[in-house]
Every structure is written in C-alpha cells, then in structure tokens.
Amino acid sequence: MTATIARPAPERAGEALHEFAFAGAPERRLFTVFRAARGTARAALVLCPPFFHEQFLSYRLLSLVAARLAERGIASLRFDYYGSGDSWGDERAFTLDGACADAGTALAEVTRRVPGVPLVAFGARAGAWPAARLARQHRLPLWLWQPLTDGRAWLDELVAMDARERASRLRYPFIGTQPKAADPERLLASYCPPALRAQIAAERLDDLLGDGLSDVHVVDDERAAPIAHARQRLALPAAAAGWHEQIDLRATFITPPVAACIDALAQAAPGGATA
Questions:
Q1: Rounded Cα–Cα distance for residues 47 and 50 (Å)
Q2: How far apart are CA 28 and CA 87, in angstroms?
Q3: What pLDDT is stored for residue 8 in this prediction?
Q4: Could you give the count of Cα atoms lying within 13 Å of 179 in the half-sphere of its Cβ?
C-alpha cells in the first residue's frame, strides 16, 4: 500500500524524476524516495541507510549517489526505517530486526514500481547489515558503501564520541567542571537502549557474507581493511570518506573520485559494461 506525497518536477529538462511516498502496511508506514531511471531502467536498487545520527548525515550523499545512478539507467528506492527519519513510529520502535523487515518492504515497493528488472541490495555503513540479509534472502547482488564490519567496534566508537560530545565546552558552554551526564538509553542523542546495543554488538559483516553472496561490490575508505568476500573493491580517498566522523551536517559533493566509484558500480549492474 502506497500513499504518494508529491511528484516534483524534474530538476533539469529530461532529468529522472524522484517521488516521495509512504509505503508498507498501515501500522508500519515507511517514508520512501523513489528515483526513476532516466530512460528505460535496466536495474533497480533498494538503498538501506545508516543508523542513528549517520542516517541524517548520509541524506545528501545518498541522494547524489541515487541521482548519478539514475542517469546511468538504474532506478532506486531510499527509505527511512520505522521509528526513524520521516517514517512512522516512535524512536523506541527502532530495532535491528525491524530494520531488516523494513528493507523487505522497500524491496517489494521498488519491485512494484519497476517490475521485471534485475534488483540490487545497497547498504551504507550499518545499512550493510539489513542489505546483506536482503541479498542473501533474495539472492541479489550486494553493493556496500563504507560498510561497518564489526558491530562491537562501532558501538565502542559511538560511546567514545558520545563522551567527547558530553565533555565539549563548545556544545555545552555552561557545563562547568564536569561533563554532561551519560544517558544509558541514548548515544549521540539517538535512542539506543541496552537491548539494541547488545544487538549491534553481535553484528559481524563476515557472518552475513560468504556462501550464497558471490556478487559483492564495496566502496570503502582507502584506509580500511579489504573485505574478503568482495568481488570488487573501490577506494574512496580519505577526504571523501570521513562524512560520518562528526555529528554535525557538512556539505557533501560528488568529487571526481567519488563519481568514479559510483560509475564503477553502475557498470557492474545488470546491463552494464562489466555485468
């Protein structure tokens, strides 16, 4: 079931349209952004976003990625997980299992919009986890953008970032001599109770890859360790890879190295030069 919000005019004459809509069951409505391919679509992808503050930090980047892929014949559906972003649900409703179920809802929606074309699962950062499960379940090619490989390590990073922010005199100019007290149910202002932290800590990307996922393409920080099961690894320069390291939104641009990574993914899609 889909309720359309708006269908914006093309940004330029002849450019692919994007459309905002709510999709999914009435009790679990997801906010989606569908980007049509320019011309006839040769493939379509479901884009699973990051979690928590990284989700809103990624909005501009993933929008630009979707737009460039659309110009190369690949439609896409981006979405917010239930309990996050503009989707329905209180933030307390967000769970890892729920995010994986939402990816399935998004896949059904993009299949409805672009029937009969090959599909791809795309995951950014923690979105790699629901995307990998989606790819395994439906035997899809998997594209990963700076994927998180170790949930425990990421959780430790978030805890350290949270501590730095709580001690920041720039963010809390009247903090006094003691840092702002930690909230056991929040990290960097995002709701993350102990049960969700335990789920995150248990996630390891290697456990989700391997047998049954032979078509894995990874765009990652050039400093990151290679992922063993990747068929193709595309390196992002450090200057383009650090967008998630702060909690404040910064300008995002598709520089030539980033554009080259996107174009290489497009070539790897069904109907591309390297398909």
A1: 10
A2: 8
A3: 47
A4: 11
Q: Which of the four pLDDT bands, split at 50, 70 and 90, describes residue 15?
A: low
Nearest CA-CA partner of 245 in 222, 227, 221, 219:
221
Kindly tell me the burial class for residue 176, based on how many C-beta atoms sit within 10 Å of its own C-beta (0-12, 13-18, 19 or more): exposed
| Per-residue model confidence as pLDDT tens digits over 117-176 | 999 999 999 999 999 999 999 999 999 999 999 999 999 999 999 998 888 777 667 666
CA distance 33 to 91: 20
* Terminal C-alpha separation, the chain: 33
Query: 218 in helix, strand or coil?
Result: strand
Whole-model pTM? 0.91
Distance (Å, whole) CA 104 – CA 165:
35
Indicate the residue type of 265.
L
The two tokens of residue 165 are 């922010």
Report which of 240, 259, 258 is spatially closest to residue 250, judged by C-alpha positions.
Answer: 240
**Sequence letter at residue 186:** R
Look up residue 93 and give its DSSP letter: G
Strands 43-48 and 74-79: parallel
